Amino acid sequence: MSDTVTTSAARVGDFIEVNGLPGRPAKRGQIVEVLGAGEHVHFRVRWDEEHESLLYPTDGATIVHPAAHAKKT
Q: Which of 8, 17, 32, 73 has the fewest CB atoms within 10 Å of its CB?
């Protein structure tokens, strides 16, 4: 069973991981609000750096359910 889900199945509390720009590290944050629907879904994300922003996911974004993430530890 995969730990990742599609962006349309993302929920508040899920984590999102996005690839960094070339030469930059990847970023990780927690979804605090799901906005839009279907192909227009986007999220308010609280990043590990302690700031929030809106994210319109593209290729390279991975959603991870907290329970699935905890099983790895």
A: 73
